[in-house]
Amino acid sequence: MSSHELDDEMQEMFEHEKKPNKVLSNETIRQPIRTLELGRAVVIESSANVGTTIELMQQKRIGCVLATRDGVLAGIFTERDILMKLINKKIDYTKVVVSDVMTPSPEVLHLDDTIAYAMNKMSVGGYRHLPVVDERRKPLSILSVKDVVAYIVEHFPDEILNLPPKPLRSTSEREGA
Questions:
Q1: Segments of 14-122 assigned E as strands
Q2: pTM above the 0.85 mark?
Q3: Can you give the residue range of the structural domain that contains 34?
Q4: How do residues 64-110 score in pLDDT, each as one tens digit?
Q5: Structural domain tally of the chain?
Q6: What is the H or E stretch that residue 2 is in?
Q7: How far is CA 16 from CA 19, 147, 156, 158, 176, in A?
Q8: Which of 4, 55, 80, 131 is the least crowded, having the fewest Cβ atoms under 10 Å away?
């Protein structure tokens, strides 16, 4: 490649307008959670057995499912429920129903709730997942900590996504003799 071609390529590269970063401010976190890219909730009947539900969670690689009764949110079944209520118990998971070990009547969000409100609920309540429901408490989605982190990363792509694979750290001790 000649230096002329290289100069043309470099000029073309720098002519592209750099997209401005989004600004994370009071206004951006006051957007409704409907502006986030939330996936559909994985929903099961609260009468489903725990063994099948855990297999479903493993298959879909998810940390929780929403449990319903007659189409209405009855509870949330999470990895934490498995760890705190099932591990080291000598029980047959196929004989235990989700309603016996789920967190009943969980805190919920609505699509018009703000991102700031959701973050407050997660922080104060210590929740990693919050169900998003309609006015009849029919499950629509789940907001996870991962969704919130992804939203923040959108606002700082250069600062976060372009980091080296290993952090640069300074030494606390002198090197050498």
A1: 43-45, 64-69, 72-78, 103-104
A2: no
A3: 21-161
A4: 999 999 999 999 999 999 999 998 888 888 899 999 999 999 999 99
A5: 1
A6: none
A7: 9, 30, 19, 16, 46
A8: 4
